[in-house]
Structures
1.
Amino acid sequence: MSPRNPGAEKTRFTLWLPDEMLEALTGVQRQTGKESVAEVIREAISVYCDLLKAREEGVELYFRHGKSGKSGPVWILPGPPPGLRRRR
């Protein structure tokens, strides 16, 4: 995701977060080299929206732990846990 275009339409809103959440997001900002916490949040929302869209299209996501080999379905909220979803 690239930084926002200065000419693009924008909407500003206020998001109140617990101090611990802001500290965690600031840590993610540092780890990923993002310019701001807002950029971290925009990217996270974009990924979440993409995941929800993929689920609506019937994509099922699974994880596999590289060392232990443990695997299972990924639960994307909102919605019921994997295995309880209605079949289409």
Note: The chain has a mean pLDDT of 87.
2.
Amino acid sequence: MKGKKISMVFILIMIMILIAGCYEASLELDFDEEGSMKIESEIIGGTYATRDDMNKAFWQLKIIFPELDLNYYTRREGKNFRFIRHDPISHQEINIIEWQEEDGTYTFEMEIPAIYGEEEDSDDLFLDIVVIMPADIDMANTTNVEDNRARWSIRERDLHKNITLRAFTE
């Protein structure tokens, strides 16, 4: 058993559901050789999200999760906001991420839990996830791979089942 771990990444993913209006969300995980990562997240307000909606959501996040003020640089620009972690965090502190290094080969896995009980028809983007590995990626379960970067675009229609993201280096 992994034990109880605080997962700020998971919390950020889940809280994005609460934001009023349409938006796009992205998460970037930049790994080093030991499996520690720099984390950066951005939420971009869409056409139907007002500046006030996004301002309210930004302050809700900061009040609900003091972790944001303690460990993240937070920046609000109009209808967009960013969270950038001050210091790298170990993969061991995030319960939805598995990381392994063996003889200079790195393996990344991230499981996003099912959110909906039934399949949705929406093709709207739920979350864009970019993973940067410490070496060039040999294989990933996405077609969007360039050198050491892999990008997954998770759609709302996919949120009725667990989603596992995988990448392996050469």
Note: Confidence is low (pLDDT under 50) at residues 17-21.
